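Quick log. Single chain, no ligands specified.
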Amino acid sequence: IPHLIDLCTGYLSYVGYDVQEFLLWNYASVKNVILYRDIFYPYGLLRYYGNDNLLFILLNYIITPLIFTVFFFLFKKIFKTRFFLYISSFSLFVFAFMVTGLEIFSRYGIFISFSLLFSYLLYSKKINLKLTKLFIGLIIGLLFSLVNDQGTYLIFSYIFLYFFNEVINKKIKFALKYCRNLLLDNIFQGIGFSLGLIPLLTYLVINNSFIKYFKYFRDVQNIVIVGKTPFFSFITSPANLFTILILFFAIFFLLIKNLYFRKKLSLSSYFQITLIFDILLLEQKSINRSIDRQITFIAFILCMLLLYEFTQLLSKYKIRDASIKYLYSFILIIV
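-> predicted structure:
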């Protein structure tokens, strides 16, 4: 019934132009139509079987708490006092609940949370541990198996972060020896990624969908031509204006701080660079299918990181802690 209501109320509107696709996909999963072999679906096993398979239903319930747990763990590395930690975590939950929506937050949040986690592992040098490399490859492989689009984003994000970290630490060299060491250094990521692909490969083999799956990737490029035009990303929407404003301010702040004042890159800077890249990556999708409101929580996290750094600058001028806390809370409420 909810899908029928969405279809009737949103079919002709800009916001709900593709709800008919979700109604079809939901119906197909209930009728045991085999994914990839019998029907096109771009969002992976988890979302396709998320309403009628017990395992995937449980996974869907676990994802949102898992994302908030990862964010809370990462925030503890940035926010040095309990007040800033708790008010920031609570603000993110309220923003996700009231603005983005928890369902959308769980979809894109899993990519953003693990992207930031990988950024932390690279910054803390824990990436040098073999078990950490295996863990990263396993997470990327599992996410790609279960949620194709978010797994693909995470692959691009990790590749960017890895080489960014190499450049910052002046390890990158354009030589045969470096390329060989790079390959050997990342062999554990490859093993972990292969293990993470086991659920997807098992599903494809059991359902005789292996060849169709690769044909799906050939055909998916046509989705823009067939179903997603002409839907333009409106840059003047409040959501887009918010995201772009935070994005440009963050880039300007990082350039001033790290190039002009020659500050050493902190963990907060790593997180900011990661979020900037992730926003730019998702904005490429927004060109074809507007997701301006869905990704505002990423800009909100970026806003909190920038605002916290600003409050730390104020503390150096002997401004009372209570005043700084009130200012931080007040700005978050406005946002």
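The radius of gyration is 21 Å.
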